[in-house]
Amino acid sequence: MRFRAKIVDLACLNHFSRVINTIARLAKTCTLRLTVGKLYFILSDKVANGGVSMWCELCQGNFFDEFQMEGVAAEHNEIYLELVPENLSRALKSAQSAKAVKIKLTNKHCPCLRVAVELPSLTSSSRMVTHDIPVGVIPRRLWNDFREPSVPDFDVSIYLPVLKTMKSVVERMKNLSNSIVIEANLSGEMNLKIETDLVSVTTHFKDLGNPPWGSEDGSQSSAQSRDLESMAEARIDIKKLQQLLAGQQVNPTKALCNIVSKRIVHFILLHEDVSLQYFIPALA
């Protein structure tokens, strides 16, 4: 089981750092899955227990100049590690002007991701800063716990408004209520609502557009057969939504959400080579 990678391009390094910073804001611990072509950061708090889930996917070729990995076995050419993303985020903070960053899986006293940052120097020799980040190796028998969540059979799918606008609305609402209702329809309308004994506040968004989801077998999903004006809604924990909006540094080119009425809200943020999915279960 081996893994080593190197980033030389500064733009790629800064982009990778922003993704890691986002993960660190969303998850205290997560699973890093390494394959030949991709990296995945996975948080699978059981939705049934009221926890959020996250699935972040990166194409390694768009970030790394070198990338070598050998999985646990030839037929299972993957590695699953448990780590604290904040530790990786801190290590990359020292790399903002680096000449190169090398990441390697080591096992001296315990399994670690070694992040070696080569910094520019005034002399001919370069300075190296090394961070050892403890990781746990997840055994093969547990891998099935970390499979990609399936896209739920949603009632409504809608593009999100500008995330900065949505963030400022949610931050103001957070002071008034612990929960927020997200409702949307297939006419590109979305409302954010809070209702308490003392106050009722609704923010309306129009003309957002609805993504064209075509099913592979040509069958109708529940979204395709519903009334265009009919609202699907879910009440969710406002802090979990605010955490996503405040934490994301991916700056997506496309952001959308799928609502399964009264069950779950599924957010998808896309930026060229990164996709981030975030699932927030509905409150009872």
Automatic annotation (TrEMBL):
InterPro entries: DNA_clamp_sf, HUS1, HUS1/Mec3
Gene for this chain: Hus1
Family in the record: Belongs to the HUS1 family.
UniProt lineage: Eukaryota, Metazoa, Chordata, Craniata, Vertebrata
Highest rank taxon of the organism: Eukaryota
Protein name: Checkpoint protein HUS1
GO biological process: double-strand break repair via homologous recombination; meiotic DNA integrity checkpoint signaling; mitotic DNA replication checkpoint signaling; mitotic intra-S DNA damage checkpoint signaling; nucleotide-excision repair; response to radiation; telomere maintenance
Function: Component of the 9-1-1 cell-cycle checkpoint response complex that plays a major role in DNA repair. The 9-1-1 complex is recruited to DNA lesion upon damage by the RAD17-replication factor C (RFC) clamp loader complex. Acts then as a sliding clamp platform on DNA for several proteins involved in long-patch base excision repair (LP-BER).
DNA damage as UniProt keyword: yes
A GO cellular component annotation in the UniProt record: cytosol
Self-association and partners: Component of the toroidal 9-1-1 (RAD9-RAD1-HUS1) complex, composed of RAD9A, RAD1 and HUS1. The 9-1-1 complex associates with LIG1, POLB, FEN1, RAD17, HDAC1, RPA1 and RPA2. The 9-1-1 complex associates with the RAD17-RFC complex. HUS1 interacts with POLB, HDAC1, FEN1, PCNA and RAD9B. HUS1 does not interact with RAD17. Interacts with DNAJC7.
